[in-house]
Specification:
The chain is of the alpha+beta class. The chain is built from 4 helices and 4 strands. The protein has helices at about 10-15, 35-55, 90-95, 100-110; strands spanning about 25-30, 60-65, 80-85, 110-120. The chain has a 4-stranded antiparallel β-sheet with strand order 2-3-1-4. Helix 2 (about 35-55) runs antiparallel to helix 4.
């Protein structure tokens, strides 16, 4: 398994240690393979949606064509961003361990050159 596309056991353990009663928002920063990666990812996206629904998750945002507005002025190193909110980290972990999901996951791996997956918590920005 490539650490550019798959979590390490330590990363999965860290995710599992998050508070069980809090949602987790997964930020996907995706870099497609040059030869058909975007098309393969669209197939993955189509086939993964039932798994996301069964996990009780919601796609909050999907976007392409990133441009830097504030920063060094260089184009970001990824092609697309996808944000999915899961009811808990365990819901995500259960989904990715499901043998039926693993069949679909093969399309993600074939589509991506690089795929950061960042687990975040909701921040209310209140005192």
């Amino acid at each position: 398994m490539s650490n550019r596309l798959e979590p390490t056991p330590g990363q999965l353990a860290q995710l599992a240690a998050r508070p069980p009663d809090q949602p987790v928002v997964m930020v996907n920063l995706l870099t497609f393979r040059v030869d058909g990666g975007r098309e393969r990812y669209l197939r993955y996206a189509s086939e993964v949606m039932p798994h996301i629904a069964r996990a009780g998750a919601t796609v909050r945002y999907a976007g392409v064509s990133p441009e830097t507005v504030i920063g060094a002025g260089e184009r970001p190193g990824w092609d697309a961003i996808l944000i999915v909110e899961y009811p808990s980290s365990q819901a995500f972990l259960d989904m990715i361990a499901d043998p039926e999901y693993l069949k679909v996951h093969e399309h993600r791996t074939a589509a991506l050159e690089h795929g950061d997956l960042i687990a975040t918590s909701v921040w209310t920005m209140k005192d």
